[in-house]
């Protein structure tokens, strides 16, 4: 080695000056397909431009992209103009875009939409075909990379939420030419195992070409034909692949897939306690209701008991007899008083009453009452009845006349 060694920052600064002095790199126009597009909250845009062989990192600052009148997105073919420079901190060179216009859709994006429309027309995305996810899976098969962040996220979330579930990982490539074949083999392996309740497949986020293994037609048809339910968890929340549309359930991230796959034990315990308390309350309420119902039927039975009816009828008969006896005595008393009144009247009209008052009764020889002197003649015998005896007599003289204060 000869010469004074340079610091890393000095090397990056030197390369930046070299690039800045190049006429072509300082006024560059590039055509390519947008991938991994991100519009940062700061207003800057970060993305890559790629073709079938390579790609380059790009940044378009807020001041430059405010005049862009197209909606930039992954798969869009564009023509961008700007300059190449070095980001000194990381030592990465990138394309600083000043202007951009649409050129057309990228080949991968066109192929994605073509396959999506084809499979949708065939019914591979129909909700009627999708299987329900088991609520309490005992064994879960995971088809993904064994070294990526996705598997770590899935393991951590499931162990935290539902530690009794067993996880079996089938390690595969998740990008590149051989990835779809390996993913298909992993899915088929788990689908043929009787002890697997649920399958999860996916990977972390990336550009459209990095996720393109999950846009494979053979993989889509394999997912459609699975007997076991499957959750697709590819990329970030804004990423969609063909596998997402065919799967029984799409999760926005691998972590979300784990959350959708299993319940949370603590929530289950709380729910179980709530259900237990509701059950106890329901049993107590049912017992109370049945007790009241039993008491009602007991009272009804007592009311309709023949013995009770007989006792009630006896009481009724006794009451009737008492009323009858009372009414009978009242009637007897009434009749007795009427008899007394009639007796008094009879005594008042009786001849004996007249005798007691000093009057007498005159009877002829035949014992008939003599009411007038016309019934008598001289020498007729008669009998006088007095209060304390009788007198026999004979008519010696008859004086006719009316008796009013003496004879006249």
Automatic annotation (TrEMBL):
Family matches, as InterPro entries: Exonuc_VII_L, Exonuc_VII_lsu_C, OB-fold_nuc-bd_dom
Biological processes, Gene Ontology terms: DNA catabolic process
Keyword Transmembrane set for record: no
Enzyme Commission code(s) on record: 3.1.11.6
Residue ranges annotated for the OB-fold nucleic acid binding domain, each copy included: 6-101
Enzyme class: hydrolase
Database matches in Pfam families: Exonuc_VII_L, tRNA_anti_2
Cellular component terms (Gene Ontology): cytoplasm; exodeoxyribonuclease VII complex
Keywords recorded for this protein, A-Z: Cytoplasm, Exonuclease, Hydrolase, Nuclease
Molecular-function annotations in GO: exodeoxyribonuclease VII activity; nucleic acid binding
Subcellular compartments: Cytoplasm
Catalytic activity: Exonucleolytic cleavage in either 5'- to 3'- or 3'- to 5'-direction to yield nucleoside 5'-phosphates
Stretches assigned to the Exonuclease VII large subunit C-terminal domain: 124-341
CDD domains per the UniProt record, alphabetical: ExoVII_LU_OBF
First-listed, main subcellular location of the protein, grouped into a coarse class: cytoplasm
Annotated function: Bidirectionally degrades single-stranded DNA into large acid-insoluble oligonucleotides, which are then degraded further into small acid-soluble oligonucleotides.
Family: Belongs to the XseA family.
PANTHER family: EXODEOXYRIBONUCLEASE 7 LARGE SUBUNIT
Quaternary context: Heterooligomer composed of large and small subunits.
Name this polypeptide is given: Exodeoxyribonuclease 7 large subunit
Origin species: Sporanaerobacter acetigenes DSM 13106
């Amino acid at each position: 080695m000869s010469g004074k060694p340079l610091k890393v920052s000095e090397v990056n600064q030197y390369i930046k000056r070299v690039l800045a002095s190049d006429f072509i790199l300082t006024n560059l126009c590039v055509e390519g397909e947008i991938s991994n597009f991100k519009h940062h909250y700061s207003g800057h845009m970060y993305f890559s431009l790629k073709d079938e062989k390579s790609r380059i990192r790009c940044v378009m600052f807020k001041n430059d992209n405010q005049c862009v009148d197209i909606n930039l997105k992954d798969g869009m073919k564009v023509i961008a103009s700007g300059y190449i420079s070095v980001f000194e901190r990381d030592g990465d060179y990138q394309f600083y875009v000043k202007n951009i216009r649409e050129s057309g859709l990228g080949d991968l994006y066109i192929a994605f939409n073509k396959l999506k429309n084809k499979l949708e027309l065939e019914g591979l995305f129909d909700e009627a075909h999708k299987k329900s996810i088991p609520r309490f899976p005992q064994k879960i098969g995971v088809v993904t990379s064994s070294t990526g962040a996705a598997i770590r996220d899935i393991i951590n979330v499931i162990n935290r939420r539902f530690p009794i579930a067993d996880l079996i990982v089938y390690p595969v490539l998740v990008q590149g030419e051989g990835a779809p074949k390996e993913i298909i083999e992993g899915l088929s392996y788990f689908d043929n195992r009787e002890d697997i309740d649920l399958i999860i497949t996916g990977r972390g986020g990336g550009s459209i070409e990095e996720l393109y293994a999950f846009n494979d037609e053979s993989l889509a048809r394999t997912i459609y034909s699975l007997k076991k339910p499957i959750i697709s968890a590819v990329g970030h929340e804004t990423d969609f692949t063909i596998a997402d549309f065919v799967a029984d359930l799409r999760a926005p991230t691998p972590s979300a897939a784990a959350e959708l796959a299993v319940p949370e034990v603590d929530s289950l315990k709380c729910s179980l306690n709530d259900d237990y308390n509701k059950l106890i309350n329901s049993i107590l309420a049912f017992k109370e209701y049945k007790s009241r119902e039993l008491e009602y039927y007991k009272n009804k039975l007592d009311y309709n008991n023949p013995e009770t009816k007989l006792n009630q009828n006896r009481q009724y008969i006794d009451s009737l007899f008492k009323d009858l006896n009372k009414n009978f005595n009242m009637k007897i008393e009434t009749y007795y008083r009427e008899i007394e009144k009639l007796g008094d009247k009879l005594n008042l009209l009786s001849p004996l009453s007249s005798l007691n008052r000093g009057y007498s009764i005159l009877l002829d020889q035949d014992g008939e009452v003599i009411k007038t002197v016309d019934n008598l003649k001289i020498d007729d015998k008669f009998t006088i009845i007095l209060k304390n005896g009788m007198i026999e007599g004979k008519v010696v003289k008859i004086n006719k006349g009316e008796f009013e204060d003496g004879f006249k």
